[in-house]
Each structure stands twice: as structure tokens, then as C-alpha cells.
Amino acid sequence: MQKVMNYTSKDLAKKILVILFTGLTGAVGLNLFLIPANVFSAGMTGIAQIAEHLLSNVGLSIDTGILIFLLNVPVFVLGFIRLGKSAMILSFANVISMSFFTTLVPVGQVTDNVLMNAITGGVMLGIGAGLSLKFGFTTGGLDVVSLLLSKTTGRTVGNYMMLLNGVIVIVAGFFFTWESALYTIITIFTMSTVVDYVHTSHQKMTAFINTGNSAVMIEVLSRELLRGLTVIPARGGFSSTEREVIMVVFTRYELYTLKQVVADVDPNSFTNIVATDSVVGSFLTQDEQNLLKKSQIAK
Fold this sequence. Notes:
Pfam families: DUF2179 (PF10035), YitT_membrane (PF02588)
Oligomer: single chain
Shape: elongated
Protein name: DUF2179 domain-containing protein
Keywords: Cell membrane, Membrane, Transmembrane, Transmembrane helix
Membrane topology: Multi-pass membrane protein
Helix content: 55-70%
Subcellular location: Cell membrane
């Protein structure tokens, strides 16, 4: 069981690295590509860019990184209520990282090609947002709202981000130029596409785990994934050794957790992971999983 205990500390260390990486890539995408080209990002970052421009017109100078932090504060109140304390603590740390690196990285121009700036900035921000969602937290702002809607309806996070960020395009066109608005559409589309490519929590997968330590594997998987497990008796075709194969259906979002558990419990196991087209029957959403976890803790 010592290896299972180490899983938590390893997981936290990786998430901290993701938070730092997300802050850096977001700051680079913003300060070196979008801001110099007057192209706006998605979510609270884009709103912060617009707010910074409008405030500068009335003589107030507030750094975009500081505005990102301030605008995200009320959103985290909603996140604590609906998404849980642990996810929001990491998400809040993610926003702090983004704000810090945005104030640290100087604004500069890599290229004067506006289209290239729009695409590259969207890719940089999309990588950070997608990785954050993949590791169980968000970049704050409209990501929280998009994630809540995605969990409720099963539609992709990227689609909701595209829909909710439409208001940024309208504001960018109204207060600035419609050319900026058009390039903003390209940035938001690029970012949403990258998020769906990296995150893809709506996709289902099935794992067949061939292990010689099935008792512990079942115990830990049941606790960490809260998914139904099917144990299939098996025999090695070459060695004739009696084994057990554990079958579990899960989301792409949970793939990271499954791999970590399997590697810690039985490094010598053999796992076959295949894409699942659809699931018929009971399949817990993440909100239902959270409720089940709370009921288990209460017991």
C-alpha cells in the first residue's frame, strides 16, 4: 500500500508543474502574440484585455495580469459551490500563476502578421486550458462555467467556450475594430479546438487490466475512479498461468488517474485501453461521482 500512498504526492507534484507551465504558456501567448496584435483572447483573459484598454482610455493603468486575477475572484465562489474545494484551490493557483507570469513576461512583438499572432496565441492558451482540465482543474473564468455546462449536458467544453466567448467578439468589434473582432474569432476557434484535442473528457474508453494483484487493484480503482468493474477469469496462452482481467469503462478525463493507479499497484500488469463508441446503461457523471464520494466520507 505504500506505493498507493506515494501516488498522491506524485500526482500533486505533476499538477504543480502543469500550473506553472500553464501560467507561462498563457503569458507568452498573451504578451508576445495577442496583445501586440490587438487580438483578444477567450474567457476572463479576453475580458481583462478589453478592460485594460478601456481603463487606459480614461487615464487608469492596470496591468492585464492583475485584472485577470481580480475578475476571476467572483467566479471561484461559484466554483467552490459546484465543482468542489480541491479542484478550485488548484484552479485558483492556476489563475495566480497566469497573473504572475503575465506581469513578469514583457509585452513584445514576435511577428507583425496578425493572423499568425491570432493562431499562435490561441494555440498557446488552448494548450494551457486543455492541460488544466485534463489534470482536474481549470484556468478559471469562463472555463468554470463551460466545465459546469459540459458536465450537465455531456457536450464538449470547447463548444461551450466558443458559445460563451461570442460576447467578447461583439465587444471587441463594437469598442475597437471589426477586424480585431474577426481575428478574435480565429483565436477563440483555435483555442477551443486545442482544448477539445487535449481534454476530450466526453470520450469514453475501456481498459482491460491483466494483473496478478487483482484484489488491491480492484480496491484502489474502485476508490479512485468510482466506476463499475468487471472481473474476468483468464489464463495465459503461453504460460498457462491463471490470472484475472479487470474491465472498466471510464472517461478520457480519468485516463491519467487510471494509468497512475495501475502503475503504482502493479507495474508488471498488462493494460489494453481501447476507445468506446457509446455506453448504454448507468454511467455516473462527475457530479454524481462527487455526491457518492461525499456520502462515503459521511459514513
